[in-house]
Write a structure and sequence with these properties.
- By secondary structure, this protein is mainly alpha-helical.
- 58% of the residues lie in helices and 8% in strands.
- Helix 2 (21-30) packs parallel to helix 3 (44-59) and helix 3 (44-59) packs antiparallel against helix 4 (63-78).
- The longest helix is centred in the middle third of the chain and has 24 residues, at 169-192.
- The chain is elongated.
């Protein structure tokens, strides 16, 4: 998995440094970042910098150190943060996205007497689809598809991941194509009034409902994408997904990985442009 950037670690420290020293040490221990080299008498920023940058250095060659960093972020977000601290979470989420991770939050009713009024249950999900089966983690796209109730697209995507790990690349490509078609049809039905006829091979028709041919920027959230602002992108990925599909011998590992990355990215792009209906 990708290591966290020093920029992201700085944003983690920015949130965590406002906690008390004892709370910081507790978080470090909970995330399995404890080291005897940590100077408990130092100021809070230096305690955090020592623990986090120590793990950052190890994370390039040690998955356990990287997981400890991610666990610290999760524990921090789930801790008893005050309003001025939770206001910094969107900035941290954006930095994590640049590193290849999605920090997802589920709001939980806060216990009586809690600062800020809300507490969160957090997950950190990798964007890189090929990492999920190897590390037994749910990817950000799987989470999005599950949350939106797109069970058919989710099932095909999980099969694509399975076949990719098994090095059955043509089958992985085929499942990716079906994933994208199922998602396109679902979004077209929900957002642009497309009527699902229940038959196979609807993707080519449905996708043309999701963008406006000749349309100009800017794109409007929830509306068909202008051709020059996303429309050409989704049509191009759709066209690519039909080349060298399930025919044996026509897809190698390199090509399959590229397709996995392209379809994963465009699916996430579509889910964010066409958000869940209230």
């Amino acid at each position: 998995m990708n290591n966290l950037s020093t920029r992201t670690i700085a944003k983690i420290i920015k949130i965590a440094k406002t906690l008390g020293t004892s709370d910081i040490l507790d978080l470090i221990m909970e995330a399995n970042l404890w080291s005897e080299r940590i100077d408990k008498g130092a100021n809070r920023q230096e305690i955090l910098r020592s623990a986090l940058m120590g793990a950052h250095s190890k994370a390039e060659r040690d998955d356990d150190a990287l997981q400890a960093l991610l666990d610290f972020v999760r524990c921090l977000v789930e801790s008893d943060l005050r309003d001025h601290q939770t206001a910094l979470i969107p900035e941290l989420q954006e930095s994590l996205r640049s590193d290849g991770y999605e920090l997802t939050l589920d709001i939980i009713d806060a216990p009586a007497g809690r600062w800020g009024g809300w507490c969160y249950s957090a997950r950190i999900l990798p964007f890189e689809s090929s990492q999920a089966p190897l590390h037994q983690e749910m990817t950000a796209l799987e989470s999005d598809l599950s949350d939106r109730g797109y069970t058919t697209a989710l099932g095909h995507y999980q099969l694509a991941l399975k076949h990719f790990v098994e090095q059955d690349h043509p089958s992985s490509n085929s499942q990716l194509r079906t994933t994208l078609e199922s998602l396109i049809v679902s979004l077209a039905v929900e957002h642009v009034g497309y009527v699902d006829n229940g038959k196979a091979n609807q993707g080519g028709v449905a996708i043309k409902k999701l963008y406006a041919v000749g349309g100009q920027p800017p794109a409007v959230l929830g509306q068909p994408l202008p051709e020059k602002d996303g429309g050409t992108l989704i049509q191009g990925i759709w066209d690519i997904s039909h080349l060298n599909g399930s025919h044996p011998g026509l897809s190698d590992a390199h090509e399959a990985r590229i397709r996995m990355q392209l379809v994963t990215a465009v699916a996430q792009f579509l889910l964010r442009h066409f958000p869940a209906k209230p």
